[in-house]
């Protein structure tokens, strides 16, 4: 299981592509991999329905009869048989389960299908999503205890200083409209969007903590909320990828608790820092929390989207 975590994580995918597929290989890359029968062309030809085989024999018989019958009658028989064969083939294609052109899992028991993961693995990935959401969501209220100190240092009113909190919330309210749909792109998937956005979120905290005026602070707070929004918008979607419908209320409820704990614990954690070191240390703590989550999730957050 640990190897699967690393292989399907953001770091694992980077290692895979940089090494040209030689390291952290997928099952399809291994010499022992056997292509399922329904994707095998030769096997598929052997599995032609009996109806199609019978109709094909009729076509052969029709060609023999052409020497004994008139040309028009023979052509009519062949045409009718061809139409029957086409109908039989179309019936087969209409069934998505047997459509060999449909790219999907190898079967209902495919071990790589997230809903077939072990209970331990699904619980661990659920914990990953909760950590990601908490690390982003705490960024809103952790700023609040430092508002008074920031107001005094920058020489602005308390109302103006509160805009740092407001802009962060506006950012993660607007961001999902632009960033959340990216997780549905097969070439990206959910994990790539999570990790890249979290990386930008972490980097943004450095200039934020070093700001010397409100005009520089507010845009950075907006950008931080904007790039952190995918975790809040599609975190539940990652859980639904892994769990079956009967489990959704429980896992989404647990994820919601993690999201709620962020704004609740933010003032408590930020209060000690702001009281002892000033407003900027609320941002440094946010940097450490998000940075630690980034290092952890880059290695241990596998992809859950079936389209990726």
UniProtKB/TrEMBL annotation:
The keyword Transit peptide does not apply. It is found in: Membrane. Keywords: Membrane, Transmembrane, Transmembrane helix. GO terms for biological process: xenobiotic detoxification by transmembrane export across the plasma membrane. It is a multi-pass membrane protein. GO terms for molecular function: fluconazole transmembrane transporter activity. GO terms for cellular component: plasma membrane. It holds the Pfam family MFS_1. InterPro entries: MFS (IPR011701), MFS_dom (IPR020846), MFS_trans_sf (IPR036259). The keyword Membrane applies. The chain crosses the membrane at residues 123-144, 156-179, 191-210, 222-243, 250-269, 281-301. Residues 125-308 form the Major facilitator superfamily (MFS) profile domain. This is Major facilitator superfamily (MFS) profile domain-containing protein.
């Amino acid at each position: 299981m640990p190897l699967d975590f690393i292989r399907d994580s953001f770091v694992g995918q980077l290692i895979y592509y940089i090494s040209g597929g030689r390291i952290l290989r997928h099952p399809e890359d291994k010499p022992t991999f056997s292509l399922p029968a329904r994707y095998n062309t030769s096997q598929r030809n052997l599995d032609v329905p009996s109806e199609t085989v019978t109709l094909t024999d009729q076509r052969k018989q029709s060609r023999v009869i052409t020497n004994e019958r008139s040309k028009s009658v023979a052509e009519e028989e062949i045409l009718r048989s061809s139409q029957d064969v086409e109908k039989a083939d179309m019936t087969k294609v209409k069934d998505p389960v047997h459509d060999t052109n449909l790219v999907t899992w190898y079967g209902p028991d495919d071990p790589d299908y997230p809903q077939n993961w072990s209970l331990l693995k699904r619980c661990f990935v659920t914990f990953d999503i909760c950590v990601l959401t908490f690390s982003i969501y705490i960024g809103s209220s952790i700023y609040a205890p430092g508002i008074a100190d920031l107001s005094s240092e920058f020489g602005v009113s308390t109302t103006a200083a509160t805009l740092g909190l407001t802009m962060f919330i506006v950012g993660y309210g607007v961001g999902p409209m632009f960033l959340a749909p990216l997780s549905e792109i097969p070439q990206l998937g959910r994990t790539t969007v999570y990790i890249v956005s979290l990386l930008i979120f972490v980097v943004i905290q450095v200039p934020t903590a070093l700001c010397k005026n409100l005009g520089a602070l507010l845009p950075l707070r907006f950008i931080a909320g904007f790039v952190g929004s995918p975790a809040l918008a599609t975190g539940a979607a990652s859980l639904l990828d892994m769990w079956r419908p009967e489990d959704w209320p429980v896992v989404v409820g647990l994820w919601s608790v993690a999201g709620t704990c962020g704004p609740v614990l933010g003032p408590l954690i930020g209060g000690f820092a702001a009281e002892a070191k000033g407003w900027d240390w609320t941002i440094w703590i946010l940097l450490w929390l998000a940075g630690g989550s980034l290092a952890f999730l880059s290695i241990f957050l596998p992809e859950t989207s079936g389209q990726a």
